[in-house]
Specification:
The protein has 576 residues and is of the alpha/beta class. The protein is built from 21 helices and 18 strands. 38% of the residues lie in helices and 15% in strands.
């Protein structure tokens, strides 16, 4: 068995059924091995960056290993953005790249990236975007030059990808060991799935005591959930927890939908594009139980130093580096979110009596109302139409841009549905391409990419990949011909704007040219009809949604709301 054949068979054994990549001479052997596989479907993207984004999507909700591959040199470097997404957003991802002949290092061979003799240094590049190997304390970036060490290295790399907080690992295969005459002498099945991280009893006791004391005193307690809780599959456990102890649930935008958003205890998202109802609950709370969130910039109103003033904080996170990183905790629990919340529930259930039902959710819940009388297609009402017509277990992905704020605010996720926006690395294009990976990770789930026109212009050629492989994703393009968030930032910071407007092609004609379905919508009725037909078609489909430029998304860099943010901005400018 040759090197790439061994890699493919090992990945088959652990349940991988898709690999996303790009063609190249140094990846030629892997391409042949994948083509011969009976269970792994190779998806050749138009660009390796898109392939890495697809691998992130594959791992996003499936709890399986995302796999991407590329040739040496520029192909490998094109994977970098996807690995950065996997690093910040906690996706288990294996990147496999070719590597030029080690015996020729320093001579300037084709695609050499040894860092010697004025060649790029791929070791440093991949070190910068791979998770840390807990065994060595170094980046999980491995160069294989000995076929006898291949399986041990592959097994170790995949274990690292899943261990603790998931993340990306990289395996570079030296061209020296890919010849037909080179074989793997010690192939075996892989053992790669470490057990979830259980809560430490002492940490659990400290957190439990703090919660019990707060509930006994009648303090106001709220729960704040992030994507870590979704990754851990903690939704049902969290719903039972808040119902038992009558606690209002807020989420970050990344935690959106962990509990059905029509649930009486699901108050909304708390962030700079969040709901007033969630902000009011936060302001009234004495203790916050934060589960699986990292207190990122837009979830903390630019790391607002007064966010926890007068509040206690219990923080549950699988990554010890997140505890005390931004805000000082009163109790920290390093554990899998599902195991931690289940253990806290069992502990409190013994000591806390029945709790009266409390109506936290206002009757005029703010997410239901779209402010604005603009003519044309309003993005808020369009997102509400997506909510009404999204099938059970549907997934909605967004990209970086104003459309993410519209979706975060107005999209209402029902039980079993999921939402995801780019994390802190925040590239444009992850939603456009990641949607293909999500769909391939679970073909039974309807997948919608609600993306800006700027994002789609960057990566929209992957529509051809969807058509070639019959991957029926629906792309809703928020078409207003401008980089909305950049324009708003320029206006607020510099009172001027430049280079933010652009022309779009005829997206319907483009869709048809690629062999996909395409619709144009200029008003809400047209959009709703197009969206229903797109979901029902079972084909890759673009919807060119011609939204009004006049509507502005809900956004406030102040936890007390937009009026407070405006007033503070005025005070800063006049020096008060």
């Amino acid at each position: 068995m040759r090197v790439y054949e061994a890699i493919v068979e090992a990945l088959e054994d652990i349940g991988v059924d898709a690999a996303f990549g790009g063609a190249g001479e140094n990846a030629a052997g892997l391409m042949l091995a994948l083509d011969a596989s009976k269970t792994i479907r190779p998806i050749l993207a138009k660009n390796e960056q898109a392939a890495a984004f697809m691998a992130c999507g594959y791992a996003m909700f499936s709890d399986r290993l995302g796999v991407c591959f590329a040739t040496a040199g520029p192909g490998a470097f094109n994977l970098i953005s996807g690995l950065c997404v996997a690093l910040t957003d906690s996706y288990p991802l294996l990147a496999i790249s070719g590597y030029s002949t080690v015996a020729w290092e320093g001579r300037g061979g084709l695609n050499e990236t040894s860092g010697r003799a004025r060649t790029p240094n791929s070791h440093m590049m991949f070190d910068a975007c791979c998770k840390t190997d807990p065994g060595t304390g170094k980046p999980a970036n491995y160069l294989v030059t000995d076929p006898a060490k291949l399986i041990d290295t592959l097994e170790h790399a995949v274990r690292v990808a899943f261990e603790g907080r998931p993340g990306p690992v990289h395996l570079a295969i030296a061209e020296d060991i890919t010849a037909r005459s080179v074989t793997v002498p010690n192939f075996r099945r892989l053992e790669v799935r470490p057990d979830p991280v259980p809560p430490d009893p002492a940490q659990l006791e400290a957190a439990g005591n703090l919660l019990e004391d707060a509930l006994e005193r009648g303090d106001r307690v709220c729960v704040l959930a992030g994507f870590g809780a979704i990754r851990a599959g903690a939704g049902d456990a969290l719903r039972r927890f808040i119902e038992r102890f009558e606690l209002p649930l807020l989420t970050t935008m990344d935690g959106k939908g962990i509990v059905d958003e029509q649930h009486r205890l699901a108050i909304g998202i708390f962030c700079d594009s969040g709901h007033k109802a969630a902000r009011d609950i936060w302001e009234d709370s004495d203790l916050v139980l934060a589960i699986g969130n990292s207190f990122a910039q837009h979830a903390t109103f630019d790391f607002n130093e007064e966010l926890f003033e007068g509040k206690q904080l219990i923080h549950v996170n699988i990554d010890p580096g997140e505890i005390d990183k931004v805000y000082r905790v009163d109790a920290g629990v390093v554990a899998d979110a599902k195991l931690a919340i289940t253990a806290l529930h069992a502990r409190l259930d013994k000591n806390v009596g029945p709790r009266p039902e409390i109506d936290y959710r206002p009757k005029d819940y703010d997410e239901r109302f779209v402010i604005g009388l603009h003519k044309g297609l309003h993005p808020g009402r369009m997102v509400q139409a997506i909510s009404r017509n999204l099938p059970p277990r549907g997934v909605v992905l967004t990209d970086a841009g104003a459309h993410a704020a519209w979706c975060g605010y107005y999209l209402e996720m029902r039980d079993g549905q999921n939402f995801r926006k780019p994390g802190t690395y925040g590239p444009m294009g992850i939603g456009v391409c990641g949607a293909l990976g999500v769909k391939f990770g679970d073909p039974s789930r309807p997948v919608v990419a609600a993306v800006g026109d700027g994002s789609y212009l960057m990566m929209g050629f992957e529509l051809m990949t969807a058509v070639a492989h019959d991957i029926p994703v629906v792309w809703v393009i928020f078409n207003d011909g401008e980089f909305k968030l950049i324009k708003l930032y320029q206006l607020s910071a510099f009172f001027d704007t430049a280079l933010t407007e652009f022309e779009n092609p005829d997206w319907v004609a483009y869709a048809h040219a690629c062999g996909a379905e395409g619709y144009r919508a200029d008003d809400e009725d047209e959009f709703e009809e197009a969206f229903r037909r797109a979901i029902a078609s079972g084909k890759p489909t673009l919807i060119d949604a011609r939204i009004t430029r006049l509507a502005l998304p809900h956004y406030s860099p102040d936890p007390e709301g937009i009026l407070s943010a405006l007033w503070n901005g005025i005070r800063e400018r006049i020096g008060v």
